[in-house]
Amino acid sequence: MNFLAFIILGLICGAIAKAILPGRQGGGIVATLILGVIGALLGGWIGNAIFGVSVDRFFSLSSWILAIIGSLIVLVIWGLITGRKAR
């Protein structure tokens, strides 16, 4: 998958992860893009390590599922990090 397709996949999966996870997560479109791309990388790594499946095709269902799961994991970690700030 080329770089632009990976960014688009990360953006969409980051937005889906934010829609699935309720609550107030900080960040706008740029944070969604970054968290989604990191999540897609994490999902691809987990999928390859555990199931032998990689995020290599844009229109593959396994790529989307792994990227969304990875984005959810990154979003939960991001919420834990940003939620502990003193006000």
Overview of the structural elements:
The protein contains three helices and no strands. The protein has helices at residues 3-20, 29-51, 61-83. Helix 1 (3-20) crosses helix 2 (29-51). The mean pLDDT is 81. The chain is mainly α and 87 residues long.
Sequence-ordered SSE layout with sheet pairings:
Elements: H1 3-20, H2 29-51, H3 61-83
Helix pairs in contact: 1-2, 1-3, 2-3
Short summary:
The chain has helices at 3-20, 29-51, 61-83. It is mostly helical and 87 residues long.
Strand content: under 5%
Sheet with most strands:
none
Kindly name the structural category.
mainly alpha
Number of strands: 0
First and last CA, distance? 42 Å
Count, helices: 3
Shape category: globular
Radius of gyration: 13 Å
Q: Which percent bin holds the helix content?
A: over 70%
Secondary-structure element order, as H and E? Answer: HHH
Question: Uncertain runs with pLDDT below 50, 5 residues or more?
Answer: none
Label this structure with key terms.
about 90 residues; 3 helices
